[in-house]
Amino acid sequence: MLERYHANAEERRAAARAWKAAHREHVAKYIQRWSKEHRPQRNNVLHNRAERMRGSVGVTRAEWLEIREFFGGRCAYCLQPANSIDHVVPIARGGRHDPSNVVPACMKCNQQKGPRTPLQWLLTQRRRERS
User: Fold this and answer.
1) Would you say residue 77 lies in a domain?
2) Cα–Cα distance list, 46 to 42, 74, 91, 92, 122 (Å)
3) Is 35 contained in some domain?
4) CA-CA distance, 24 to 66, in Å (whole number)?
5) How far apart are alpha carbons 38 and 56 in whole angstroms?
6) Which one, of 74, 96, 91, lies nearest residue 83 by Cα?
7) Which pLDDT score is estimated for 24?
8) d(C-alpha 54, C-alpha 10), whole Å
9) What is the pTM of this model?
10) Is the pLDDT of residue 45 over 70?
11) 95: Cβ–Cβ under 8 A, 6 or more apart, which residues?
């Protein structure tokens, strides 16, 4: 049973993504209700992220402009114009908010990558392309 579960993992994830896309309002209401009912857990998640950010060196505006200039104002992943900051090793996975871990990214790549490393993200992209 576990083999079948893991064998169909990508299919289940695709079905879940499709359902969420088709029921955006329902999902938004659920998240809002959950946030109100589970305020301590929600605050804990936000607090942990803030703590990880505080423990970092930080990125000054001058450093960020230098990093953007190095990449030519382009997304580090798809080379489209970049309009957001991305952490190569996500904060959620213990990455730091410092110049060595920051690259420019377009919103699409930044959102698709989410809390994954670039390698994990690229591997999931390749699986989608094959399907």
Assistant:
1) yes
2) 6, 30, 12, 11, 27
3) no
4) 38
5) 28
6) 74
7) 94
8) 36
9) 0.59
10) yes
11) 87, 88, 89, 101
Is 29 inside a domain boundary?
Answer: no
Asked whether the predicted pLDDT for residue 74 surpasses 70, the reply is yes
Q: Are 53 and 85 in contact (CB under 8 A)?
A: no
Domain of 75, CATH number, reads 1.10.30.50
Residue 73 lies in a domain: yes
> Residue 75: its pLDDT value, please?
95
Q: Is the dihedral of CA 66, 71, 72, 74 positive or negative?
A: negative
Report the alpha-carbon distance of residue 109 to residue 41 in Å, rounded: 28
Domain total in the chain:
1
Q: Which two three-digit tokens encode residue 116? A: 């994954």
Give yes or no for a contact between 117 and 90, defined as CB atoms under 8 angstroms apart.
Answer: yes
Pairwise CA distance, residues 43 & 49, whole Å:
10
Amino acid at 113: K
How many degrees, rounded to 5, is the angle at CA 67 between CA 61 and CA 72?
A: 120
